[in-house]
Protein backbone atom coordinates (compact mmCIF):
# COMPACT_ATOMS: atom_id res chain seq x y z
CA UNK A 1 0.00 0.00 0.00
CA UNK A 2 1.36 3.40 -1.01
CA UNK A 3 0.44 6.19 1.40
CA UNK A 4 1.38 9.81 0.77
CA UNK A 5 1.61 12.27 3.66
CA UNK A 6 0.87 15.82 2.51
CA UNK A 7 0.74 19.32 3.95
CA UNK A 8 2.37 22.72 3.81
CA UNK A 9 5.79 23.40 5.31
CA UNK A 10 5.61 23.08 9.10
CA UNK A 11 2.41 21.03 9.01
CA UNK A 12 4.00 18.18 10.97
CA UNK A 13 4.57 15.61 8.22
CA UNK A 14 7.86 14.30 9.60
CA UNK A 15 6.35 13.85 13.06
CA UNK A 16 3.48 11.78 11.68
CA UNK A 17 5.73 9.73 9.40
CA UNK A 18 8.08 8.91 12.28
CA UNK A 19 5.17 7.78 14.45
CA UNK A 20 3.66 5.65 11.69
CA UNK A 21 6.95 3.95 10.93
CA UNK A 22 7.20 2.81 14.53
CA UNK A 23 3.62 1.50 14.48
CA UNK A 24 3.44 0.01 10.98
CA UNK A 25 7.03 -0.93 10.17
CA UNK A 26 6.68 0.91 6.89
CA UNK A 27 9.32 1.82 4.34
CA UNK A 28 9.72 5.60 4.04
CA UNK A 29 10.80 7.82 1.17
CA UNK A 30 10.89 11.57 1.75
CA UNK A 31 10.61 14.00 -1.14
CA UNK A 32 12.41 16.01 -2.32
CA UNK A 33 15.36 13.62 -2.00
CA UNK A 34 17.99 16.32 -1.65
CA UNK A 35 20.78 13.86 -0.73
CA UNK A 36 20.12 11.36 -3.52
CA UNK A 37 18.70 13.13 -6.57
CA UNK A 38 20.46 15.62 -8.84
CA UNK A 39 17.07 16.96 -9.87
CA UNK A 40 16.13 17.63 -6.25
CA UNK A 41 19.53 19.21 -5.62
CA UNK A 42 19.05 21.59 -8.54
CA UNK A 43 15.59 22.51 -7.26
CA UNK A 44 17.03 23.14 -3.80
CA UNK A 45 19.74 25.38 -5.21
CA UNK A 46 17.07 27.34 -7.07
CA UNK A 47 14.99 27.75 -3.92
CA UNK A 48 17.99 29.37 -2.23
CA UNK A 49 18.60 31.77 -5.12
CA UNK A 50 21.55 29.96 -6.70
CA UNK A 51 20.05 29.16 -10.11
CA UNK A 52 19.24 32.56 -11.53
CA UNK A 53 15.61 32.95 -12.53
CA UNK A 54 14.80 29.23 -12.55
CA UNK A 55 12.29 29.60 -9.71
CA UNK A 56 10.35 32.13 -11.79
CA UNK A 57 8.92 29.19 -13.73
CA UNK A 58 6.46 27.09 -11.75
CA UNK A 59 6.53 24.54 -14.56
CA UNK A 60 10.34 24.21 -14.47
CA UNK A 61 10.39 23.70 -10.70
CA UNK A 62 7.52 21.21 -10.87
CA UNK A 63 9.38 19.25 -13.55
CA UNK A 64 12.52 18.98 -11.42
CA UNK A 65 10.49 17.69 -8.45
CA UNK A 66 8.68 15.24 -10.76
CA UNK A 67 11.96 13.89 -12.13
CA UNK A 68 13.14 13.30 -8.57
CA UNK A 69 10.09 11.08 -8.03
CA UNK A 70 10.67 9.35 -11.35
CA UNK A 71 14.10 8.25 -10.13
CA UNK A 72 12.47 6.63 -7.07
CA UNK A 73 9.58 5.00 -8.94
CA UNK A 74 11.12 1.54 -9.13
CA UNK A 75 11.88 1.54 -5.40
CA UNK A 76 8.29 2.52 -4.59
CA UNK A 77 6.79 -0.10 -6.90
CA UNK A 78 9.07 -2.90 -5.69
CA UNK A 79 8.32 -2.20 -2.03
CA UNK A 80 4.61 -2.11 -2.71
CA UNK A 81 4.68 -5.38 -4.67
CA UNK A 82 6.59 -6.95 -1.79
CA UNK A 83 3.61 -6.28 0.46
CA UNK A 84 5.13 -3.40 2.39
CA UNK A 85 3.39 -0.23 3.50
CA UNK A 86 5.23 2.59 1.72
CA UNK A 87 5.04 6.00 3.38
CA UNK A 88 5.86 8.95 1.16
CA UNK A 89 6.66 12.22 2.93
CA UNK A 90 5.33 14.54 0.21
CA UNK A 91 4.37 13.17 -3.18
CA UNK A 92 2.69 14.23 -6.41
CA UNK A 93 -0.09 16.19 -4.69
CA UNK A 94 2.60 18.50 -3.35
CA UNK A 95 3.53 19.44 -6.91
CA UNK A 96 -0.12 19.95 -7.78
CA UNK A 97 -0.88 22.10 -4.74
CA UNK A 98 2.22 24.29 -4.89
CA UNK A 99 1.97 24.76 -8.66
CA UNK A 100 -1.70 25.74 -8.43
CA UNK A 101 -0.87 28.13 -5.60
CA UNK A 102 2.05 29.72 -7.43
CA UNK A 103 0.15 30.21 -10.68
CA UNK A 104 -3.22 30.81 -9.01
CA UNK A 105 -4.60 28.56 -11.74
CA UNK A 106 -6.22 25.17 -11.07
CA UNK A 107 -5.65 23.96 -14.63
CA UNK A 108 -2.01 23.16 -13.78
CA UNK A 109 -3.25 20.29 -11.59
CA UNK A 110 -4.22 18.35 -14.73
CA UNK A 111 -0.79 19.13 -16.22
CA UNK A 112 0.92 17.70 -13.13
CA UNK A 113 -1.26 14.60 -13.31
CA UNK A 114 -0.33 14.02 -16.95
CA UNK A 115 3.37 14.71 -16.41
CA UNK A 116 3.89 12.54 -13.35
CA UNK A 117 1.46 9.65 -13.64
CA UNK A 118 1.20 9.29 -17.40
CA UNK A 119 4.37 10.66 -19.03
CA UNK A 120 6.81 9.65 -16.28
CA UNK A 121 4.87 6.61 -15.06
CA UNK A 122 5.12 7.44 -11.36
CA UNK A 123 3.00 5.06 -9.21
CA UNK A 124 -0.32 6.44 -8.01
CA UNK A 125 -0.86 6.48 -4.24
CA UNK A 126 -3.48 4.21 -2.69
CA UNK A 127 -4.22 6.75 0.03
CA UNK A 128 -3.27 10.34 0.80
CA UNK A 129 -3.24 11.96 4.24
CA UNK A 130 -3.48 15.72 4.51
CA UNK A 131 -2.29 17.42 7.68
CA UNK A 132 -4.67 20.36 7.75
CA UNK A 133 -2.51 22.54 9.98
CA UNK A 134 -3.32 26.24 9.77
CA UNK A 135 -0.77 28.34 7.86
CA UNK A 136 -0.24 30.44 10.99
CA UNK A 137 0.69 27.46 13.17
CA UNK A 138 2.79 25.92 10.40
CA UNK A 139 4.68 29.21 9.99
CA UNK A 140 5.55 29.33 13.70
CA UNK A 141 6.74 25.73 13.61
CA UNK A 142 8.93 26.43 10.57
CA UNK A 143 10.41 29.51 12.25
CA UNK A 144 11.18 27.56 15.41
CA UNK A 145 12.77 24.78 13.39
CA UNK A 146 14.93 27.33 11.58
CA UNK A 147 15.99 28.96 14.86
CA UNK A 148 17.02 25.65 16.39
CA UNK A 149 18.85 24.27 13.34
CA UNK A 150 20.86 26.53 11.03
CA UNK A 151 20.76 23.88 8.32
CA UNK A 152 16.96 24.18 8.19
CA UNK A 153 16.86 27.80 6.97
CA UNK A 154 13.57 28.42 5.17
CA UNK A 155 13.74 28.56 1.38
CA UNK A 156 11.78 30.84 -0.97
CA UNK A 157 8.63 28.75 -0.80
CA UNK A 158 8.75 28.26 2.96
CA UNK A 159 9.28 31.95 3.73
CA UNK A 160 6.46 33.15 1.47
CA UNK A 161 3.47 33.36 3.83
CA UNK A 162 1.02 34.19 1.04
CA UNK A 163 2.16 31.16 -0.97
CA UNK A 164 1.75 28.91 2.07
CA UNK A 165 -1.81 30.14 2.57
CA UNK A 166 -2.72 29.56 -1.07
CA UNK A 167 -1.07 26.13 -1.00
CA UNK A 168 -3.07 25.11 2.07
CA UNK A 169 -6.24 26.10 0.22
CA UNK A 170 -5.13 24.16 -2.88
CA UNK A 171 -4.47 21.07 -0.77
CA UNK A 172 -7.94 21.35 0.76
CA UNK A 173 -9.50 21.42 -2.70
CA UNK A 174 -7.54 18.33 -3.78
CA UNK A 175 -8.62 16.45 -0.66
CA UNK A 176 -12.25 17.50 -1.07
CA UNK A 177 -12.47 15.96 -4.52
CA UNK A 178 -10.27 12.99 -3.54
CA UNK A 179 -7.77 13.69 -6.29
CA UNK A 180 -6.19 10.42 -7.54
CA UNK A 181 -7.14 8.36 -4.45
CA UNK A 182 -9.08 8.45 -1.17
CA UNK A 183 -7.88 11.12 1.27
CA UNK A 184 -7.87 11.37 5.06
CA UNK A 185 -7.77 14.92 6.46
CA UNK A 186 -6.24 15.29 9.94
CA UNK A 187 -6.55 18.31 12.20
CA UNK A 188 -3.59 19.14 14.50
CA UNK A 189 -5.21 17.33 17.44
CA UNK A 190 -5.60 13.99 15.63
CA UNK A 191 -5.62 10.70 17.55
CA UNK A 192 -2.55 8.71 16.45
CA UNK A 193 -3.95 5.39 17.63
CA UNK A 194 -7.12 5.91 15.61
CA UNK A 195 -5.07 6.86 12.53
CA UNK A 196 -2.92 3.74 12.84
CA UNK A 197 -5.97 1.51 13.25
CA UNK A 198 -7.57 3.01 10.15
CA UNK A 199 -4.41 2.60 8.07
CA UNK A 200 -3.98 -1.00 9.21
CA UNK A 201 -7.58 -1.71 8.24
CA UNK A 202 -7.16 -0.18 4.80
CA UNK A 203 -3.88 -2.00 4.25
CA UNK A 204 -5.58 -5.33 4.96
CA UNK A 205 -8.41 -4.50 2.56
CA UNK A 206 -6.03 -3.48 -0.23
Automatic annotation (TrEMBL):
GO molecular function ontology, one term from the record: dTMP kinase activity
| One Pfam family per UniProt | Thymidylate_kin
Keywords, ordered alphabetically: ATP-binding, Kinase, Nucleotide biosynthesis, Nucleotide-binding, Transferase
What CDD domains does the annotation carry?
A: TMPK
Positions with biased composition (Basic and acidic residues): 140-159
- Cite the EC number: 2.7.4.9
Provide the residue span(s) of the region labelled Disordered: 140-161
Q: Which reaction does it catalyse?
A: dTMP + ATP = dTDP + ADP
One GO cellular component this record assigns the protein to is:
cytosol
Residue ranges of every copy of the Thymidylate kinase-like domain listed in the record: 5-178
Broadest EC class assigned to this enzyme: transferase
- Per its UniProt entry, which superkingdom is the organism in? Bacteria
- Biological process (GO), any one: dTDP biosynthetic process
Q: Belongs to which family?
A: Belongs to the thymidylate kinase family.
For this protein, the record's PANTHER family field holds: THYMIDYLATE KINASE (PTHR10344), UMP-CMP KINASE 2, MITOCHONDRIAL (PTHR10344:SF4)
Q: What does this protein do?
A: Phosphorylation of dTMP to form dTDP in both de novo and salvage pathways of dTTP synthesis.
This one is known as Thymidylate kinase
According to its UniProt entry, this protein's organism is: Corynebacterium vitaeruminis DSM 20294
Question: What taxonomic lineage is listed for the species of origin?
Answer: Bacteria, Bacillati, Actinomycetota, Actinomycetes, Mycobacteriales
Amino acid sequence: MIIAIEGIDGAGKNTLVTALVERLGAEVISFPRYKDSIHAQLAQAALYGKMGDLTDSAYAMATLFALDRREASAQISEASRAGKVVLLDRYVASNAAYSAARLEDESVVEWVETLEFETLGIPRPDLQILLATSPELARERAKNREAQDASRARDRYESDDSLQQRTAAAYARLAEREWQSPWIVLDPGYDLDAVCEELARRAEVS
